[in-house]
Design brief:
This protein is about 20% helix and about 30% strand. It has about 170 residues and is of the alpha+beta class. The chain has a single domain, classed as Gcn5-related N-acetyltransferase (GNAT) (Aminopeptidase). The strands form two sheets. Strands 1-2-3-4 form a four-stranded antiparallel sheet, with helices on both faces. A three-stranded antiparallel sheet has the order 5-7-6, with helices on one face. The protein is globular and about 35 Å long.
């Protein structure tokens, strides 16, 4: 595989977050995919709506020869509509996704490590995410230092203490 570069998203690429958000949705049955209309659900759309307009919005992409193959982004999703990983108004939520053919190759680890470094350098104390229990990414999140702080039948709410992290 060619070298992947981790870099900030460019303003003209923000529209790619729609594809990335869809890729981030856990799909256990490849023969019965969730329709893309799922992105219209306010709690889902909140992860990308007007991205770049909030002070905590930040996105890194995995660039392979000029093509975006993955992304990690954070934002605080509070107010009337909260994110699935909502903790408080100072805790940005993580979202990460890669196109299938780039998964399990270390790209997600690179993206997450770069974002954790960014959050540490910018004084954030913690970051959160929500993940389906059966999603294989749970292992990656644990490896990166995220801890399960609550759960329901389907999901884990995970938190990374950035003050303990060595970003």
């Amino acid at each position: 595989m060619k070298k992947i570069t981790i870099r900030e998203i460019k303003p003209e690429e923000i529209n790619k977050l729609e594809d990335m958000l869809y890729e981030a949705i856990y799909q256990p049955d490849e023969n019965n995919l969730i329709p893309k209309t799922v992105l219209e659900i306010p709690e889902v759309n909140a992860y990308i709506k007007d991205f770049g307009s909030k002070k905590d919005d930040y996105c890194l992409v995995a660039d392979l020869a000029g093509e975006i193959v993955g992304a990690v982004w954070v934002r605080v999703i509070s107010g009337e509509i909260k994110g699935y990983g909502y903790i408080d108004e100072n805790t940005p939520e993580f979202a990460i996704s890669l196109y299938k053919q780039y998964r399990n190759k270390g790209v997600g680890t690179q993206l997450m490590a770069s974002m954790i470094t960014h959050l540490c350098k910018n004084g954030y104390k913690q970051t959160s995410l929500n993940v389906k229990k059966e999603n294989h990414a749970v292992r990656l999140y644990k490896k990166m230092g995220f801890e399960i702080i609550s759960e329901d039948n389907e999901d884990y709410l995970m938190l990374l203490n950035l003050e303990k992290s060595n970003g």
